[in-house]
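Record P-loop containing nucleoside triphosphate hydrolase protein, 478 aa.
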Amino acid sequence: MAGDANRVANQISGLYMLYGAPMEIIIGSIFLYQLLGLSAFAGFVVLVLGWPLNSFLTRRSIRIQKGVLKAKDGRMQVLTELIQAVKFIKFFAWEQRWIERAMKAREGEINWMIKARLNGIGFYCLWITAPIFISVISFFTYVMLGNELTIGTAFTAIALFGMIRQPLNILPTFIVQVLQTRVALNRIAVYLEEDEVPEQVSSLKGTARNTYSDDGDNRLGFDHASFKWNEVEAKETDAKKKPSDTDSIVTATGSDNGVSDHRFELRDVSLTFPEGQLTVVTGPTASGKTALLLAVLGEMTTLEGRILMSKNAHKVDAFGNMQTISYAAQSPWLRHQSIKDNILFGYPLDTERYEQVIEACALRTDLNMLEDGDATEIGEKGVSLSGGQKARVALARAVYARTQYVLLDDPLSAVDSHTAQTLFEKCLTGPLLANRTVVLVTHHVELVLPGAHYLVRMLDGRVDTHGTVRDLRAQGLL
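=>
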């Protein structure tokens, strides 16, 4: 895409050739007509007769340029995969296989480049020889019509032919560049015409069909809202498929148990998470707990209703927290960087706060066991963390960020009971999450209920029960 954009930008500077070269040719032709009469245009007949060959080379140039760009993209994709997976390639001794794959992609690109160069030579030969043929045939016709070719006439005509020779030589090159730019524009157009992301996640500045409501307060919740999973059209393949009810839809996000079901919906959700308190979301598997958090994040399509959330991300409350969300997913997402960089996630280092987060998320013992401590790189080029360690690093990242809203998707399920107790005491009910709106999805209700202020129970995509823990106990629902 960057190469296509540069090609278009560079071509803009040469747009004057669209009128400059033809204008020079027209002016030179007028002077030649005054000097040689109709004989001056005899040579141009050869030029007209050569247009079919020029048209063939032009169409071939477009096809070759598309092939060159496609082969270049394929070669870059192979090299990118090779570089990213070089560690595993060395582990499994796949060097020769990947060398052959990379060389095959490179050979394909070279073949297309050879075709492009040969086609360019054809253009060059055609248009370099054209002015010479025009001069020779014009003089020959002038003499055959009984005119005397004097030295003055000959050299003046040669000078005029020389004037139009340069634009005639430049014009074909410019035409090829225009055709290549057209191919680049078509590729850019294909990219720009791709389906847009859903409106509710495209920008935090817009209201997206009134999906979000900002009433000026710090509320987080839903107002008679219903959601479904985002859906995209399935791409057609060459192989013929039997029609079915699900062929036309691919689900963009899975449900609680990891099974994609585009028919799942969150229905008529109306609740507000208490500001500055811990809310526990519980319920059976695939009841919509994860979906509830993803709906807040804008990862589900809104069917009706509104999401209640402050849209002023730059607003900072009295405790130094911005009106934004930090999220720890059930399947932790970590970058291939150091543990420290994953926790900071671009925020400036506050040493005191960072150390408090390490302690609260029970990472101190794990870091002491690593040779490089929190400088240890994780991922393909570093160590592999256990599921519990990944969950706690993701939790630490969400806690460290100075955000008012903290969404935690079952971080306790990946740790043992002792660590879960530590996380509850030092993190979930500790000073780092005090005065922050925390929404915790968990099955460990008995563990976290003593520190929870509000409870939401999901069932089959709807809110079955919700209220303060005190009220629910008074009603005998707990």
